[in-house]
Automatic annotation (TrEMBL):
Keywords: Membrane, Transmembrane, Transmembrane helix
Cellular compartments annotated: Membrane
Name of one Pfam family that matches: Gpr1_Fun34_YaaH
Keyword NAD recorded: no
Official protein name in the record: Acetate uptake transporter
Recorded topology in the membrane: Multi-pass membrane protein
Originating species: Eggerthella guodeyinii
GO CC annotation: membrane
Main location: membrane
Family per similarity comment: Belongs to the acetate uptake transporter (AceTr) (TC 2.A.96) family.
């Protein structure tokens, strides 16, 4: 029975493509709003909950099941981030009443952005031993949280808002490529699309 459970556990597929696809979609929609191509956050909430949140949570749980603490932590942490963002947008859009909308303090969200910047800095160092694509995704996320935090605190709002938007676009494009590469490499059982060797190789 124990051997059967181990065999079932090892049969879980790599969830990276699912998690990266969720990240790619939500950051693309979010940057379209920041760059002025779309308006408001009401429509964005659905993508944040289902793709940014749920898709990454599923991927993270599978990664933890596969004993991948790095991938599991990343997907779950960022999945919860997008769920929290959706909750914040729901509040500012008045879904929880006018009092909640009027008393919403964006500086508290800015504090959370700083906390996520610290987490992402650690993850960026860890990504040095993954792939170049994943490393650059985390590096772009660093710039995203820096831009979001500064914007939330009112520091050079227009410039930092644009920095966040461009960072989200870069994250989206790299994540789309990473998701596609993971799917095709796994499907063809070969390196169909390169992800790049790690910058920092482990000792042999």
């Amino acid at each position: 029975m124990g051997e059967m459970k181990m065999e079932q556990r090892s049969s879980w597929a790599d969830p990276s493509a699912l998690g990266l696809f969720g990240l790619a979609i939500v950051t693309l929609v979010a940057c379209s709003q920041k760059l002025g191509f779309t308006d408001g956050t009401a429509a964005l909430m659905g993508w944040a909950i289902l793709l940014g949140g749920c898709a990454q949570l599923v991927a993270g749980l599978i990664d933890l099941r596969k004993n991948n603490a790095f991938g599991g932590t990343a997907f779950i942490a960022y999945g919860l981030f997008w769920l929290a963002m959706a909750f914040g947008w729901a509040t500012t859009n008045g879904m929880f009443g006018s009092y909640a909308a009027e008393t919403f303090d964006p500086h508290q969200t800015g504090v959370a952005f700083v906390a996520y910047l610290l987490l992402t800095a650690f993850m960026t160092v860890g990504a040095l031993r993954t792939t170049k694509v994943l490393f650059f995704i985390f590096l772009a996320i660093d710039f995203l949280f820096a831009g979001l935090a500064l914007s939330a605190f009112g520091v050079a709002h227009e410039t930092t808002h644009t920095l966040a938007a461009i960072s989200e676009l870069v994250i989206s494009l790299l994540s789309f490529y990473g998701a596609g590469a993971n799917i095709l490499n796994s499907h063809f059982d070969e390196q169909f699309l390169p992800l790049g060797k790690p910058f920092w190789s482990s000792k042999s």
